[in-house]
Amino acid sequence: MTTDTVSVTASEIAPVAIDRVALTVRDIDLIGDFYQRILGLDRLSGSGEELILGQDGRALVELRRDTAARAYPHAAGLFHTAFLLPHRDDLGRWLRHAHAQKVRMSGASDHMVSEALYLRDPEGNGIEIYADRPRATWLHDGDHVVMETLPLDLASLRRAEGDWTGAPEGTVIGHVHLQVGAIPEARAFYAGELGFDITAEIPQASFFSTGGYHHHLATNTWNSAGAGTRPKGATGLAELVLDATDTAAIRTGLSVDDPWGNRIRVA
C-alpha cells in the first residue's frame, strides 16, 4: 500500500471536525511540560489554574487544574486524543524523537487509512500520534470505511529525513476516542442526536465522522462496558469542543452531555 505523504486537511475539510480537548489534571506543570516536550505543542496562555497548548496559535489542548481529582480508569471518559500530523515523514521524525526521550509506547498500528503510534501522558490520558494515508487509497465496504489493526512498519518510519523540531505547522486533533457504557446508546446519541455518520463498526466500538473522513469520533466499551454516569471530580476529559464549519451539519452553540456525562460543545 502506498505510503505517500498526505495533507492534514483530510480531517478538517469536513463540515464538523475536532477543535480542542479540555482535560482535568492534578499536576498541571507536569502534564503541561509533557505535551510541550514530548508532543512539541506551544504554550499559548496560562494562569496556573489552566494552561492552553497548541500549534501556530491554534489551541488544541486545554489543561484545567484540580489537585483533588481522581482517576477512574474504567469509567466513561477519554480513551485517547489523536494528534494528526501533516505528513508521514513527520510521524517518523516524531518516532525517533520519542525514542530519544525514552517515551514508553503503548502501541503501534497500521490502520490501512492511517499509521498510528500510541502512548499515555503521566496521568494516564491516552494519546495517539498519527498520519493519514492519501484519501484516494482508503477502501470502502458500502458506506463504511475499511479499517484494520495491522503491524506498523516502524523501520520504514524511522528512515524519515530530518529532525523533529516540535509539532509541525498543520498539526490538529484529527479524532477523539471516548469510553462509554454501551454502543447502541452511543450510536443513538452521536449519530441520531448529533447527526454524525457512522463510518465503521467493530466489536464493542463504533466510529463517526462528517464529510467522509474515516472518523472524527469513536466510542468504545473495551475498558468501560456497563459504565454509568462519569464520576464528578474525575481526571481526564473535561470537555470536547467540536468545530462546525457548516452550520447545517450540526447544531452550533450546543453544549450537551452524552448519556455518560462526557461534555460535548459545538463551537
Automatic annotation (TrEMBL):
InterPro entries: Glyas_Bleomycin-R_OHBP_Dase, Glyas_Fos-R_dOase_dom, VOC_core. SUPFAM superfamilies: Glyoxalase/Bleomycin resistance protein/Dihydroxybiphenyl dioxygenase. PROSITE patterns: VOC (PS51819). One of its GO terms (molecular function) is dioxygenase activity. It holds the Pfam family Glyoxalase. Residues 17-132 form the VOC domain. Keywords: Dioxygenase, Oxidoreductase. This is Catechol 2,3-dioxygenase. The lineage of its organism: Bacteria, Pseudomonadati, Pseudomonadota, Alphaproteobacteria, Rhodobacterales.
